[in-house]
Design brief:
The chain is an alpha+beta fold. It has helices at residues 4-14, 29-41, 58-62, 69-95, 112-134, 171-180; strands spanning 20-26, 47-50, 158-163, 184-190.
Length: 191
């Protein structure tokens, strides 16, 4: 049996601690796009861009890989389809053989709505849980929550944040770098 301290350590491992973040504001979506390219080219890996709307090409500008979520949803949806296909076959042809109007024990055409609905259900649940897991949500704490200016990113603000977990992170050098690429109101936020 595990002790309570081991359980506490395990629970703390689930929470990603970010002790500090450097945040810079940019004037427009175009400026944010070019800033993301410059941050990527400077070698930063642990950074994020925040804007009130999606910016076309931002994933490439940040150097992000394609999300594995589509593959995960497809695989789980296919497994759900195969499971419900097996279940309908087993219940109709093995467990409860019942002849109706001389039809075969397993006539899959009757089960198409069930197969479709179950596949969609499994896929949507997988997509929701997978998206939350990949995005590490819900995020109950982050140093960005302490910024006075960051709340406007959902209206008209464009921000780049670089986390202290990055190998190139240096509080002073990172702040100066963000200022040099056009960042305004650069602030260092700590937990």
């Amino acid at each position: 049996m595990a002790s309570t301290t081991e359980g506490a350590e395990f629970n703390m491992a689930l929470i990603k601690k970010v002790p500090a973040v450097v945040l810079a504001e940019f004037d427009s979506a175009d400026a944010l796009y070019h800033a993301a390219q410059k941050v990527r080219d400077a070698g930063y890996k642990e950074f994020d861009c925040h804007s009130p709307f999606p910016i076309h090409g931002m994933d490439e500008a940040m150097g992000l890989k394609r999300s594995p979520l589509g593959y995960i949803v497809f695989a789980c949806g296919l497994m759900g389809l195969l499971f419900i296909l097996w279940l309908t076959w087993w219940t109709g042809a093995v467990d409860y053989k019942f002849v109706i109007s001389g039809k075969p024990y397993f006539s899959f055409q009757a089960y198409v709505p069930v197969l479709f609905a179950f596949t969609v259900l499994v896929s949507s649940i997988t997509a929701t849980i997978g998206m939350l897991a990949i995005n590490q949500l819900p995020r109950l704490f982050h140093p960005l929550f302490h910024s006075v200016r960051f709340d406007k990113f959902s209206d008209d603000g464009f921000f780049v944040s670089i986390e202290s977990g990055d190998s190139k992170y240096d509080e002073h050098k990172t702040s100066e770098f963000l200022k040099s690429i056009g960042g305004k109101h650069v602030e260092v936020l700590k937990e």
